[in-house]
Write a structure and sequence with these properties.
- This protein has helices at residues 22-30, 34-51, 63-71, 97-108, 129-134, 145-153, 167-178, 194-203, 216-222, 228-234, 245-261, 280-289, 319-322, 337-341, 344-348, 380-386; strands at 56-60, 82-86, 112-115, 139-141, 159-163, 185-189, 212-215, 238-241, 266-268, 290-297, 301-310.
- The strands form three sheets. A five-stranded parallel beta sheet has the order 2-1-7-8-9. A four-stranded parallel beta sheet has the order 4-3-5-6, sandwiched between helices.
- It is of the alpha/beta class and 393 residues long.
- Helix 7 links the parallel strand 5 (159-163) and strand 6 (185-189).
- The structure holds iron/sulfur cluster (SF4).
- Iron/sulfur cluster binds next to helix 15.
Length: 393
């Protein structure tokens, strides 16, 4: 079991990075103060007790929140009166099989594919991009859309950037599309848009979520006001929180207070980064390049307006228009029986956890992932596996 919030441990980030000053370090550690963390946890327990039913259940919709919760051992600190459920916050995990198939089909046809490292192992109908690479396809790992465009500049080959990520990452893709990329560069978008999937999760049969912890980095782009309509429609509070331990605990405390008081509204507990309006410049770029459309999120459901696709005016940069992508030949491969056991979708919908899966840590591990949740560093199964593999990590 990881020791929670040991400010002197490497996990608490005490190793000073190059260029960081003592003042930077001290500021960072203030958000990891063990005494304050314990006080916040006690306050959460008190408030949940006042709600009068236990446990109170809330959901976070961001893999980065789950990473912080696991890394700092916060589940040992969060009282049993509060159930913090993981939601669909991993963009790699929700990339659907047909989207992976499109990338694999292109790769098998000799088109050079560039994508984020996590995307290479995500299984499609006939294996992953990594499998295609092993069979001789050209697949490059990149760290950004800009790097994929650079790759295209250095070659005459067609380079397709298989783009994944939520609105935060889509902004970076949009900037490259608007930045006059080379003629041999195009984008196969698997970008997703978070607000619509919150609607789906809130309405799922069996859902017991009483409030949402929203991701601070996405809200930095979108602004916190974007959640107001959701709150109106569903009567559930939303609290925007950052990623340091005290950010998360303070966000959870505010969320439980809103639940106790029956006053659903949006509260921003990450004001050092998030404003009501967000980053207008980034939003303009995002919506100039992308439009929303409905599509399946792997294992969850069809999410109306949950996918981001390039607008018609960017057809020359859209790999789906530029190439005739035939994925039907991949459908001859029957999915493995192990794949059918995977409960990744239920985990992302908040109705199961990794330990409910009989394959967790056995047939399914980071080197041999069966489902997408074990692939990405933001996938719940991968995070739990990395930090100890049990619910109290
Ligand atoms: Fe799917 Fe693997 Fe997670 Fe099981 S452990 S739910 S197979 S990703």
């Amino acid at each position: 079991m990881s020791a929670p919030l040991d400010a002197g441990s490497p996990a608490a980030g005490t190793a000073r990075s190059a260029g960081a000053t003592l003042a930077d370090e001290a500021a960072e550690l203030r958000f990891r103060d063990p005494g304050r963390a314990r006080a916040l946890a006690a306050a959460i327990d008190r408030v949940c007790g006042q709600v009068g039913r236990a446990p109170v259940a809330v959901m976070h919709v961001c893999g980065s929140h789950e990473q912080s919760i696991a890394k700092f051992g916060l589940r040992t600190l969060i009282p049993r009166s509060l159930d913090v459920i993981m939601g669909p916050g991993c963009p790699v995990c929700v990339t659907d099989v047909p989207e992976v198939d499109e990338a694999v089909a292109l790769a098998q046809d000799g088109v050079r594919i560039a994508s984020y490292g996590d995307m290479l192992k995500v299984p499609g109908s006939a294996g992953s991009l990594s499998d295609a690479q092993a069979r001789g396809a050209r697949v490059d790992v990149v760290y950004s859309a800009a790097q994929a465009a650079e790759l295209a500049r250095d070659t005459d080959e067609e380079v397709v950037f298989f783009a994944s990520g939520f609105e935060t990452t889509a902004v970076a893709t949009a900037a490259v599309v608007l930045g006059n990329p080379p003629a041999n560069f195009s984008v196969l978008s698997a970008h997703k848009y978070i607000p619509p999937v919150m609607e789906i999760v809130a309405e799922m049969p069996g859902a017991r979520v009483e409030g949402f912890l929203a991701a601070g980095h996405a809200a930095t782009i979108t602004g916190w006001a974007i959640f107001e309509r959701f709150v109106e429609r569903h009567g559930l509070p939303v609290v925007v929180a950052g990623f340091e331990p005290l950010d998360i605990l303070a966000g959870l405390l505010t969320l439980t207070e809103l639940i106790r008081d029956g006053t659903p509204r949006v509260v921003n507990t990450f004001p050092r980064c998030v404003t009501r309006e967000g980053n207008r410049n980034a939003q303009n770029q995002l919506w100039r390049v992308f439009r929303t459309t409905g599509g399946r999120w792997r294992g969850i459901a069809h999410v109306p307006n949950g996918n981001l696709r390039l607008r018609d005016e960017f057809a020359p940069v859209d790999a789906r228009r530029r190439f005739d992508i035939d994925v039907r030949r991949l459908w001859d491969y029957a999915p493995s029986q192990l794949t059918q056991v995977c409960v990744c979708g239920d985990i992302m919908a908040g109705i199961a956890s990794p330990v409910d899966c009989p394959l967790f840590g056995k047939e399914c591990a980071p080197d041999t992932p069966v489902g997408a949740c074990m692939v990405s560093t933001e996938g719940t199964c991968r995070i739990w596996h990395q930090y100890g593999g049990h619910p109290d990590l």
